[in-house]
Design a protein that fits this description.
The structure is a single chain. This protein has 257 residues and is α/β, with parallel strands linked by helices. 30% of the residues lie in helices and 24% in strands. The strands form 2 sheets. Strands 1-9-3-6-5 form a 5-stranded mixed beta sheet, with no helix packed on it. It has a 4-stranded mixed beta sheet with strand order 2-8-7-4, with no helix packed on it. Strand 7 and strand 8 form a beta hairpin.
């Protein structure tokens, strides 16, 4: 009996040392692209240099020309082995000429193929050139050049490159070409200085929003007044003619000084 008890105790001890089955735990898969929120980048047109675009697996990158009123005419992709290219219009796959109105390009990486005995053509490829020729409604063409490359871990995941028109420089309220060149009645220095102060002050007041309560008609009256002063009419006479308040005149002169 003692032997049987010893055997039973030994069995219990042995069983106690056996690891019990452990339920499978969900494997936490980290995806750097998923964790990084894709962003939108707005770029002024035209481009003055080659633009880099990082291509992420799982994040398609779009290039949009719609805001410019431009359509895509032709595209040249240097290396087609690792990046796919489509548009929102019909495209001739041979010469990459867009045969239908298109304003957006979609880029996506092609996963490398691993076939025994076949050399991977895109295994070491890290970049490719992309040339895009667009045409606006007036028939004027623009050329955009991009450098496509595999994104690094530190690069942002760009979902959209949205082209917009570059902001226009403020226009002098006096549209006279001679005034734009500074040829303002050199025989009357005081009048030339006054007109310059009025013109600059009006532009500054508009940019600051000081005249936001004025209607376009009232602002145009101030411009006509300045034009009359430029032509030699005394300031207050011009102000009366176009019903411009003296307070406004004083303010724009101060802003233009």
């Amino acid at each position: 009996m003692r032997n049987l008890a010893a055997i039973g105790l030994t069995a219990i001890l042995l069983i106690g040392t056996i690891d019990l089955p452990v339920f499978a735990r969900p494997v936490k898969v980290t995806n750097r692209v998923r964790d990084r929120k894709p962003i939108i980048v707005r770029v002024n047109s035209p481009l003055n240099e080659v633009m880099d675009i990082n291509i992420y697996a799982g994040v398609g990158t779009n290039i949009n020309f719609e805001n410019l009123g431009e359509t895509i005419e032709t595209m040249f992709l240097e290396n087609k082995s690792w990046v796919g290219l489509t548009t929102n219009g019909s495209m001739n796959s041979q010469d990459q000429t867009v045969t239908n109105t298109a304003s957006l390009i979609h880029l996506s990486p092609i996963d490398p193929l691993s076939i025994p005995g076949v050399v991977q053509t895109n295994k070491k490829t890290i970049q490719s050139g992309l040339t895009v020729i667009t045409k606006d409604k007036a028939g004027k063409r623009k050329t955009y050049i991009f450098n496509l490359r595999y994104a690094r871990n530190s690069d942002a995941a760009v979902a959209l490159v949205d082209f917009t028109l570059a902001p226009q420089a403020p226009v002098n309220p006096i549209v006279s070409a001679s005034m734009m060149r500074g040829e303002i009645d050199a025989s009357n220095k005081e009048r030339r200085i006054l007109v310059a102060k009025l013109a600059n002050g009006l532009g500054e007041a508009i940019n600051r929003g000081d005249l936001k309560d004025y209607s376009p008609k009232q602002i145009n009256a101030i411009r006509q007044m300045i034009g009359s002063v430029y032509q030699g009419i005394p300031l207050m006479e011009a102000a009366d003619r176009y019903a411009v308040d003296a307070t406004v005149i004083s303010k724009i002169i101060l802003l233009g000084t």
